[in-house]
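Order emerges. One example.
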Amino acid sequence: MNQQSGFVVSTALIVALGGFLMGFDSSVISGVVGFIEIEFELSSLQLGWAVSSLTLTATLAMLIAGPLSDRIGRKPVLSLAAVLFAVSAILSAIAPNFLVLVIARMIGGLGVGASLIIAPMYIAEMAPPASRGRLVSFNQFNIVIGISVAFFSNYLILTLGQSSTGIANALNLEQWNWRWMLGIELLPAILYYAALTLVPESPRWLIMQGRGEEALGTLQRINGAEEGRQELDLVRQSISDEADQPETSWRSLFNTSMKLVLLIGISVGVLQQITGINAVFYYAPMIFEQSGIGTNAAFMQAVFVGLINVVFTVAALLLIDRLGRRTLLAIGLSGISICMLTLAFGFGSATYRLDQQNIENLPAEISRIQISEVVENVYYSDLEFRDAVSAAIGIETYSRYETQLVSEAVDLQPKLILIAILGFVASFAISLGPVMWVLFSELFPNRIRGKAISFVGLINSSVAFLVTLLFPWELDTIGVSGTFLIFGLFALIGLILILKILPETKGKSLEQLEQELIGA
């Protein structure tokens, strides 16, 4: 690696640390939901709100972050995001009630939205065309690293809390396990804020502010002395060509010339979330518990989800500038639809039955007289089983001991469930995960990139909010099998749409793509 490429890679990696925090902050809640549901006595919709509140304010931040970065710069917005992550971690860890926890999560959501929009934009504006897909994907790579670390740290805190070791007792890990899960994010937030002092401002943003000579130094570090000067002239010419156009406003997004890129951006943004990725990441232990493997094993399998996510995101980094964006999306959406339909079949074919031996394994707090009403009965869906057992022992008792009850009663193929979930995560990680943000950073012209990415990011985050909020309610209302069936059908529809409307963008400069997709 020469000095120029080393500078670009190191800068991209530092900026992409925002992705790590975003991934950690988003997925750490997966280990928390079971504990806060009991401690704060939450309904299914309240539980969904505790998880999705982060996404709600991330949606607001996406709307604001792009225009704000156009005004004050990309780097200051990223630094602000680091501060918000730190505040959220502290407040989450000490939250005395459900309301404070939600407020803390919403503060973190502002950091998530800002970093999710600005980090890939910054990297795209720095990166040479030949390596732009790989470098922008660093952000997604860091997101999945953050997700994996969150899953692993949750499992580690859970097992340490049960170990009664000296450090576990000193930190009160057993009683405060979920507080430590949320609070530990403070450490990477401080690291990110410090590391951002080492990177320059985006050269394209500097040029748009009339600070071309300041941008030249960065461009020459990226491309070399002569090519850096040529790149400066090219960007200046592109901006000059746009000077006679009306001032960029939100209305400019809906000009006729923007029709294709906006359609692509919205379609990919909706697909990334409506196929169920956040439901899996945010509720992974809950999903695995539905297969009857128990709490500790569910947390361990969630770690597997994180590892698969990392491995296949690395594969995407290696392939995105070779195979291209369109090919990876086609492969990934095909895999997502197959895996989600497999999950629907796996849970749909499950049966639930409690016998006398099962009853003896249940916690003593469950009345043996009351539970005897459902002994030896066979139920053919999770909803049917829940309704019958809840009627017998009471809904509060069922909610508290749902994991143990399902584990004893369910008869399905847990390996099939695990393989399908890991296959889904792999398919997402090699396609919709990294490709969406690469496309967002490529599709839109310089003059309106901040507003355009904020707009499609807003739509993406809005869908994420709804999916995350409604997932516990869907499980309670239409069941596990029906929920995954819906995700699989959306993936099939998305595959057909992407093959129809998406051109290939690999290997082309941002200015070249603007000419081809938008026109002069």
User: Anything to note?
Assistant: The chain is about 75% helix and 0% strand. The CA atoms of residues 271 and 494 lie 6 Å apart. The chain has a mean pLDDT of 83.
